[in-house]
Amino acid sequence: MADDPEFDVEGWRTELEEKRTEKDEFFSTHPQSPIPPEDREAFDGLDYFEPDPQYRLEATVSIPDDPASDPVYMETTAGGEVRYLRTVVLTMGLEREEPNLADAELELAGYEQEGTDGALFVPFRDKTTGQMTYGGGRYMELEAEDDLAEGDSIVVDFNLAYTPFCAYSETFACPLPPEENWLEVAIPAGERFE
């Protein structure tokens, strides 16, 4: 998607940097920050991979027949479980410029909690998990302008992948990505956590 002639790379990069600055501000000053109050003064911002448009992909949507008949139970960092519905499956091709990183065909499920009507929750692990990124995986949230249908396209921007709050404080219980969303490639985009 980065090679789309209508894609404004500089505008995208500027918007991404602004979102990162806003998030750092929230983490350092907001009462609901996951950074413990006693650590906020020393907090100097989250660690990010450099913005990279090759990790902004166009995915094709598949819709499962009956999501409610096959719920997904995700374990949480606190030891419990959370029930989700697999409402979409996203398939996308990843073509990379680096010679040491292979191209790949990726598939990720997107989930919603029953009774909610909001962003798609896309938790995932990849080959950076536990090394350059949080050991419990990372999250993305995707929003479509309309209800998604079979064969639709949606942008999946791994530069927006973020670390769940439980990485910073045990007061949060976070769902762990199910095995179907464990990618066999490294995705060096989004938030780092070492």
List strands and helices in order, with pairings.
Elements: H1 9-29, E1 56-62, E2 72-75, E3 81-94, E4 104-112, E5 120-124, E6 138-142, E7 153-157
Antiparallel strand pairs: 1-3, 1-7, 2-3, 3-4, 5-6
Kindly estimate the percentage of residues that lie in beta strands according to DSSP: 25-35%
Unreliable parts = none
Q: What share of the residues lie within helices?
A: 10-25%
- Principal-axes geometry comes out as globular
The largest sheet, given as strand count, sense and whether it forms a barrel, is: 5 strands, antiparallel
Quote the distance from N terminus to C terminus. 29 Å
The averaged pLDDT comes out at 93
Helix and strand succession?
A: HEEEEEEE
Quaternary organisation of the protein chains: single chain
Computed CA radius of gyration, to the nearest angstrom: 17 Å
How does the helix and strand content classify structurally?
alpha+beta
Q: Number of helical runs?
A: 1
Q: How many strands appear in the DSSP assignment? A: 7
Region (Disordered): 1-48
Protein name: DUF1684 domain-containing protein
InterPro entries: DUF1684 (IPR012467)
Biased composition (Basic and acidic residues): 10-27
